[in-house]
Amino acid sequence: MTKKIEKIPYDAVKCGDETALVFDAPDYDLAKTFDCGQCFRFLPVASPYECEFAGAAHGRYVRFAKDGARLLVLGAEEADADLWAHYLALDADYGEIRDGLSARLGQNPTFAKALDIAGGIRILRQERFETLCTFILSQNNNIPRIRLLVERLCDACGEPIETPHGVFRAFPTPERLASISVDALRDMKLGYRARYIADAAKVVASGELDLDSLTPENARQALLSVNGVGEKVAACVRLFGVGDLAACPVDVWIRRAADAYFDGNLEPLLTEKYGGVAQQYLFYYERYTASQKHN
Question: Which of 16, 55, 163, 207 sits 20 to 30 Å CA-CA off 97?
Fold first, then answer.
């Protein structure tokens, strides 16, 4: 694990009639972080800033914006400053991470390009149950479709959050989801994933799976015991929920990158101590270069 900066300094300032928590984050690419396939509850919104994303996490509606070197958490309570600094991974030393990746993988010219293009991405620290469910929904799906399914689930089962911009919905609790029938979940167009979502909610709500007790050392085996969770979903939960930066989810994009740039050998990524970060850089690079080819 990379070292953490224990306390992140911030300023609390007034932006109109709301409070903004302002962090110094010059090398943080907010747009890429929220558009790299790790999080499905935030969308870009019109903003006077360079970019702004609005959504829900930890039962709260929140907006993140980038303004030059500043990262703003808009409408947040000052008491939640540490919560959002942790969620955004502002307490991790990504300079150290990038230097390590460059030293170990940077001799590969394509990875060096990926590091340059996607190097501002941070691995968010998301709620574990939400991460488990959203990546179960991600199976055989694309990002817009995953977002749609997640929002259906939240609209049907999530607690309402009153905001100045209308009512938003929190991600459902395990107990709430466990009370929903598989047929009702299927009616939300979750398909075969409905049964897996129901099973995951039941094992978490019952305490059979204690997500809070998961560590980088025990998470893989515990997650693979959940019906419908295979290696890829388990790796996603380990990376985005547990914070195991060595966990490297392998999907079609990464297999394609391995075939094209690593002679089909995934070993450099699977054994890299920041393999999950490297995976996100390559994932973004592959999507970026694929979109460039079609423009």
Answer: 55
E strand or H helix at 85, and its extent? helix 81-87
Torsion of CA 47, 172, 152, 160, to 10 degrees: -60
How is residue 39 written in tokens? 């999080």
pLDDT, tens digit, for every residue of 57-114?
999 999 999 999 999 999 899 999 999 999 999 999 999 999 999 999 999 999 999 9
Q: Please answer whether residues 194 and 181 qualify as being in contact, where contact means their C-beta atoms are separated by less than 8 angstroms.
A: no
User: Nearest 5°: phi and psi at 192?
Assistant: -65, -15
C-beta separation of 226 from 202 below 8 A: no
- β-sheet bridge partners, residue 92: 4
Question: CA 16 to CA 32: how far, in whole Å?
Answer: 27
Dihedral sign of CA atoms 145, 172, 44, 95 in order: negative
Among all chains, which residue has been given the structure tokens 């914070």?
A: 243
Distance between CA atoms of 93 and 1, rounded to whole angstroms? 10
CA distance 50 to 68: 8
Instruction: Determine contact, residues 159/169, Cβ cutoff 8 Å.
Output: yes
Specify whether 273 is catalytic: no
Query: Of 14, 232, 273, 293, which one is the catalytic site residue?
Result: 232
Largest Cα separation within the chain, whole Å, is 55
Beta bridge partners of 165: none
Q: How many angstroms separate the CA atoms of 124 and 95, rounded?
A: 16
Say how many Å lie between the first and final Cα of the chain, rounded. 39
> Is residue 51 helix, strand or coil?
strand
**Confidence check: pLDDT of 231 > 70:** yes
Main-chain dihedrals φ then ψ at residue 214, nearest 5 degrees: -70, 140
List b or e across 34-54, with b for residues whose CB sees 16 or more CB atoms inside 10 angstroms.
bbbbbbbbbeeeebebebbbb
d(CA 217, CA 232): 17
